[in-house]
Amino acid sequence: MALHPYDLYDVRSQLSEEERAVQDAVARFTDERVLPIIGDAFDQGRFPKELVGEIAELGLLGATLPEDYGCAGLNAVSYGLICQELERGDSGLRSFVSVQSSLCMYPIHAYGSEEQRRRWLPDMAAGKVIGCFGLTEPHGGSDPANMKTFAKKDGGDWVINGGKMWITNGNLADIAVVWAQTDEGIQGFVVEKGMPGFAAQEIKHKMSLRASVTSALFFDNVRVPEANRLPNVKGLKGPLGCLTQARYGIAWGPIGAAIACLDEALNYSKERMLFGRPVAATQSAQIKLADMARRITLAQLLSLQLGRLKDAGKMQPQQVSLAKWNNCRMAIDIARECRDLLGGAGITTEHAAIRHALNLESVITYEGTETVHQLVIGRELTGINAF
Ligand code: TGC
Ligand code: FAD
Question: Which residues form the Acyl-CoA oxidase/dehydrogenase middle domain (predicted)?
Answer without folding.
Answer: 132-222
